[in-house]
Design goal:
Layout lengths: L28 H16 L3 H17 L3 H12 L5 H13 L3 H18 L2 H17 L3 H17 L3 H17 L3 H17 L3 H17 L3 H18 L2 H17 L3 H18 L2 H17 L3 H18 L2 H17 L3 H18 L2 H17 L3 H18 L2 H17 L3 H17 L3 H15 L12
Length: 467
């Protein structure tokens, strides 16, 4: 199947040092409105110290309630009074949260320079987390990982357990993106008790959501739903509308994989309304992609294509190159299924170019696999085999054992079709080993069935490249 962005998100970011209590903890709506007016008057009167002091706690409150546009306006107003690291930090966070990752990256680099000038190590670590998140969203996992590892050294040096949990969770997210689910899960499980220990419900919910993602990817769908349900309850309780939308999206993906596209569509539509409410263009695009996937599962290819095509310009607008490639892959999948192989190849090759530009190796392998399938449908086994053989070492490089098994199975199918049972069996057996290592029982059973068909001459394996 084509690759799909799934709305996975990182844990809540850290906070620059000394920003939580100035001028006071802001909790109620009435108090927030009061401090918003204080901030407005401070900006109008050019009272920079007061404006900066009010901006940070108010921004933090509004971020927790998904009021991203308000946070961006608040930070920009503060910045009219002069450079300020925390204001840039919160502006970058707001931009990243609404899918403007390229802009967020530029803003956060400005914030980082100011944090370093001020010797604010906690703020520096928090900003590195935001930079890493922007790189993750842009499909640049190695750059993200480098930022997070720098942040982890800083938070451990200053003894910030909350910052450590955030950074561990974000590192887990990158490993997940790279297909290394074992490392991803290990980092999430280190982070979760720290979030719980500190009463950080937003971080706890994000990490539960991310653990759910791992179980979904491993095919353990009921476990995934259990973690998502825990995350959803917390996000609703704390009023995190953007996070709620993400978790609803992911639950929809699980129901779709369970063969219940109607239930999936119900979750996706709830998520879409929330994404639009909070102004998350990237999340809206991801959800449109997912709605397209559900329609694809129902055999409603024209509807699926329409949703994928609605998602594509939004992803291009926000600069989400990895998401753009995912949409192109999905559009290619529709054309593949309709037998329009020339158009499918055009989409997949555009996706491949984007993924190579951003260095997203895991999805590059998936796209090579998709291209190989088109060649296989056209009866060009030589070209198909060349694509699968390009994908295979990348799958191994990034530690994507499930993906590696899928490509090994495709290669095995080609050899079976070509009348070379020994080579087919060799690749199927390697696929079984990989599937056992990731606990993918259904995939293992399917491949063992194919091995039996070859060994006992009872027929040919079912083609996995079926559109």
């Amino acid at each position: 199947m084509p690759v799909l962005t799934d709305g996975t998100d990182a844990a809540a970011y850290g906070t620059p040092a000394g920003q939580e209590e100035q001028p006071a903890r802001i909790r109620s709506t009435a108090t927030a409105a009061h401090w918003a007016e204080v901030h407005r008057l401070a900006v109008a009167g050019r009272e920079r110290v007061i404006a900066k002091a009010v901006c940070a706690p108010l921004a933090k409150l509004w971020l927790g309630r998904s009021r991203f546009a308000d946070v961006a306006a608040l930070a920009r107003a503060t910045l009219t009074l002069g450079p300020d690291g925390p204001s840039l930090y919160y502006l970058g966070w707001a931009l990243s949260s609404t899918g403007r990752s390229r802009q967020a990256l530029d803003i956060n680099h400005q914030a980082l320079a100011l944090m370093q000038e001020d010797g604010d190590q906690v703020g520096e670590a928090a900003t590195l987390n935001n930079i890493g998140s922007a790189y993750t969203d842009l499909g640049a996992p190695q750059q993200a990982l480098a930022c997070y590892k720098r942040a982890l050294l800083l938070v451990r040096a200053v003894g910030s357990r909350a910052g450590e949990a955030t950074t561990l969770s974000n590192i887990g997210l990158v490993y997940d993106q790279l297909g290394d689910r074992r490392r991803a899960l290990a980092h999430y499980k280190q982070a979760l008790p720290i979030f719980q220990e500190h009463g950080d419900r937003a971080g706890e919910a994000a990490t539960l959501n991310n653990i759910g993602d791992i179980h979904k990817e491993l095919g353990d769908r009921q476990q995934a739903l259990a973690y998502y349900h825990q995350a959803l309850l917390i996000r609703r309780d704390i009023g995190n509308r953007a996070g709620e939308a993400t978790t609803l999206n992911n639950m929809g993906l699980v129901y779709n994989s369970l063969g219940d596209p109607q239930q999936a569509l119900a979750y996706f539509r709830l998520s879409l309304d929330l994404m639009r409410e909070v102004g998350d263009l990237a999340g809206e695009a991801t959800t449109l992609n997912n709605i397209g996937l559900a329609h694809h599962g129902l055999g409603e290819r024209p509807d699926a294509l329409a949703y994928y095509q609605r998602a594509l310009p939004l992803l291009q607008e926000v600069g989400d190159r990895s998401g753009e490639a995912a949409a192109l892959n999905n559009i290619g999948g529709i054309h593949d299924g309709l037998g329009d192989w020339a158009q499918a190849l055009t989409c997949y090759e555009r996706a491949l170019t984007v993924l190579r530009e951003v260095g997203h190796r895991a999805r590059e392998a998936t796209t090579l696999n998709n291209i190989g399938c088109v060649y296989r449908h056209q009866g060009d086994r030589e070209q198909a085999l060349a694509c699968f053989q390009q994908a295979l070492p990348i799958r191994r490089e990034v530690g994507d054992r499930a993906g590696e098994a899928a490509t090994l199975n495709e290669i095995g199918d080609l050899y079976a079709e070509a009348g070379d049972p020994q080579q087919a069996l060799r690749h199927y057996q390697q696929a079984v080993t990989a599937l056992r290592q990731v606990g993918h029982r259904a995939g293992e059973a399917a491949t063992l069935r194919d091995i039996s068909l070859i060994r006992f001459g009872e027929g040919m394996p079912t083609a996995r490249c079926a559109p």
